[in-house]
Known about the structure:
Elements: E1 8-11, H1 17-28, E2 32-37, H2 41-52, E3 58-62, H3 68-82, E4 87-90, H4 105-133, E5 136-141, H5 144-148, H6 154-174, E6 179-186, H7 192-195, H8 199-207, H9 217-228, E7 239-242
Parallel strand pairs: 1-2, 1-4, 2-3, 4-5, 5-6, 6-7
The chain binds NADP nicotinamide-adenine-dinucleotide phosphate.
Amino acid sequence: MKLLEGKNVIITGASRGIGKGIAQVFGSHGANVAFTYSSSEAPALELEKELSEMGVKAKAYKSNAASFEESEALVAKVLEDFGGIDVLINNAGITKDNLLMRMGEADFDSVIEINLKSVFNMTKAVQRTMLKQRKGSIINMSSVVGVKGNAGQANYAASKAGMIGFTKSVALELGSRNIRCNAIAPGFIETEMTEKLDEKTVQGWRDAIPLKRGGSPEDVANACLFLASDLSAYVTGQVLNVDGGMLT
Ligand code: NAP
């Protein structure tokens, strides 16, 4: 059964990793997928082609999620190209890890702007359309680190915790208009983002996971599929951990 047949979806940061996995799973469920990247044009165009070959409408857009103006222009362009927006997935994110002692102001600011302010930018930009259609699902890609904290990631953890507060507030504000807003908190998911970690840290994460493995982009995408589709019609304001039991 295709769960998103004909739905129009925007995903930020889908040129690789979790965003790409979401685009692939959503495409296989019949969704039309508009997605962004910041610099990886070649893989983004490859994904656009792969999705189009599945028989859905797909388009890659270069857009910096941290920019309010670019996000507004992106949403206007997607509305023109796709004719509507049913689902927004705020997935774009970066890390700039360091102990607080060594963390510079620029490392704090860029992580907050790309991970957290982007969520404000994009949610605000799609809000009017979703309000008019009296339906929508917004999914914010937080992290277990936003729930629990992590040494060396004060900037990242603050951005991800901020996303949870934002998610719950938007769920309260927009619930009466049938717009749902939920967060996903992935644990250790094997992507380019986690490739940067040293082996000792990675082993530490794996040892701490009850399911004894890192997650895949598809594991996260399947949780997104639930939150994007009508299967979760009565679910809003929640944080769904996709972490192999890490926070249990
Ligand atoms: P990734 O492999 O590093 O991919 C990040 C994606 O975000 C890329 O497509 C990148 O595009 C895009 N991006 C970066 N800056 C952007 C910007 N300013 N505007 C638009 N797009 C931008 O990361 P990932 O592991 O898939 O992570 C995806 C999300 O899940 C992030 O929010 C991350 O914090 C969260 N998460 C990941 C894990 C994990 O273990 N991997 C765990 C918890 C949460 P370009 O290549 O063009 O820059």
